[in-house]
Specification:
The chain is mainly α and 448 residues long. It is 69% helix and 7% strand. The chain has one domain. Helix 6 packs antiparallel against helix 12. The longest helix has 40 residues. The protein is globular. The termini are far apart.
């Protein structure tokens, strides 16, 4: 394994592990806040128990995310010194703001966890809201830094060095809004459907379980609207990629020759040598419309770029298809659940819908991982698009395969522990003898 491949593999494993905890850290505080508000409005003790459980889950994932995020910060400096020297003046501001949001989240999470019986119900709920807001802000600032890598702005390049740095302009790069919107919605959709899918699966064996029914309703309230809005944010992202990263768009759709009225490919396997994609379903003019809202628009093919600047087309194309396919499934299930609720039918009483939700449980996370593969592999061979190559940013230190294997094993071990803790704390429904821990609401709570 080459040093460049080892460094990229280690970064990929670290990011792939960390992104799951970051995503759930964005979505789960919303679940706990909604559950607490439902308890305050209805007095139903199950909502209180859900809020407490999801608060514990948020704390667990916050701690693990902090550890894996710290590892990533070290890896940026150790594995990619050329990148940090080049890009530090620009990405320093969004990372600093992310740190501010992180500490804000930590402060209010502490207040939320230890303030149940010490502050007023209204103040406690607002502490939870601040956890949710600061968690989302933390993710947004990190994604802004990545968006700058895809569309670098806010500086002049003189003799290979950044000068005249404007970090605000760098943060307001053309990819910032579409990428942060797409990722934030993905976090809510993935978390909501993961929780909904787990409880839907458990309802298949215990259809009248009130705990799982309440949890399913809140999870769908968070996940379904986000999944329905994802196609809109995906449209914004596709147009931004077409304008700022045409080579990535061509790789996503395995589009080799520049042409007009380019079809949109569903599925298929690209052959880089022949420039053909086999076994794909073609929608005439679909890619032209997706990229420019004009079915007759011209779309640049990979032939417009030097061969050494092509991304890995099979990987990018396949990951893009996986992301779109799973996102479409989640949107369709959201429509189904919304239609069922609109007709005032019991969602948890629909056997086929429960099965569809159970199947959807891991799909949001798989789609997010696939989307980040598209983002990162599709930018290659550039670490900063069009400015700095990945090969020029990697560390010259040899023997990177060994820390890669070590960190991979560590992440697997840590992941297993987290799954066990989450099952113990938030997924398992309470036993009859545990219901004494679910408190009846006080008059003060009912007035809040």
């Amino acid at each position: 394994m080459s040093d460049l491949l080892a460094a990229r593999s280690q970064m990929a494993v670290s990011l792939g592990f960390h992104i799951i905890f970051a995503v759930v850290g964005i979505g789960m505080p919303v679940l706990m806040v909604v559950a607490e508000r439902r308890w305050q409005k209805t007095g139903d003790g199950i909502f209180l128990d859900l809020a407490r459980r999801w608060a514990k889950g948020t704390a667990i994932l916050f701690a693990v995310g902090a550890v894996s995020g710290t590892v990533l910060s070290f890896e940026l400096g150790l594995l990619w010194p050329g990148f940090m020297e080049f890009a530090g003046p620009i990405i320093g501001m969004p990372f600093s703001l992310e740190g501010f949001a992180f500490f804000t989240e930590a402060i209010f999470l502490g207040i939320y966890l230890y303030g149940w019986d010490r502050i007023s119900p209204r103040a406690h709920l607002w502490a939870g809201i601040m956890v949710a807001v600061s968690g989302a802000a933390s993710g947004i600032f990190v994604v802004i830094a990545n968006a700058w890598m895809n569309a670098p702005t806010g500086f002049d390049l003189v003799d290979g060095r950044i000068t005249n740095v404007d970090p605000i302009a760098g943060m307001l790069n053309p990819m910032a809004f579409p990428q942060t919107l797409h990722m934030t919605l993905a976090a809510y959709a993935a978390t909501g459907f993961a929780v909904a899918g787990i409880h839907a699966f458990l309802l298949l064996f215990d259809r009248q379980n009130a705990f799982h029914r309440r949890a399913l309703s809140i999870a769908l309230l968070v996940g379904a609207p986000a999944a329905l809005l994802q196609p809109v944010s995906g449209d914004l992202s596709a147009r931004a990629v077409a304008e700022n990263q045409p080579a990535k768009l061509a790789a996503m759709e395995s589009h080799f020759e520049t042409a007009r009225r380019v079809p949109l490919l569903i599925g298929g396997w690209p052959d880089v040598e022949t420039g053909e994609t086999s076994y794909a379903i073609r929608i005439p003019g679909g890619l032209s419309f997706l990229a420019f809202h004009d079915v007759n628009a011209e779309v640049q093919g990979l032939e417009e770029f030097p061969r050494d600047q092509w991304p890995n087309v099979p990987i990018v194309h396949t990951a893009f298809q996986v992301m779109v396919g799973l996102g479409t499934y989640l949107a369709l299930v959201s429509l189904w659940a919304g239609w069922t609720a609109w007709r005032r039918r019991d969602v948890s009483g629909n056997l086929w819908l429960l099965r569809a939700l159970a199947l959807a449980a891991p799909m949001g996370f798989i789609a997010i991982e696939a989307g980040w593969i598209v983002t990162e592999v599709g930018r290659q061979p550039w670490i900063v698009y069009g400015v700095l190559r990945t090969a020029d940013a990697v560390t010259p230190m040899p023997g990177l395969m060994y820390p890669f294997l070590l960190f991979s094993l560590l992440y697997c071990f840590l992941g297993a522990i987290v799954v066990w803790l989450l099952y113990r704390q938030i997924i398992r429904s309470p036993r009859p003898d545990e219901w004494t821990r679910i408190y009846a609401p006080s008059p003060e709570v009912m007035r809040a």
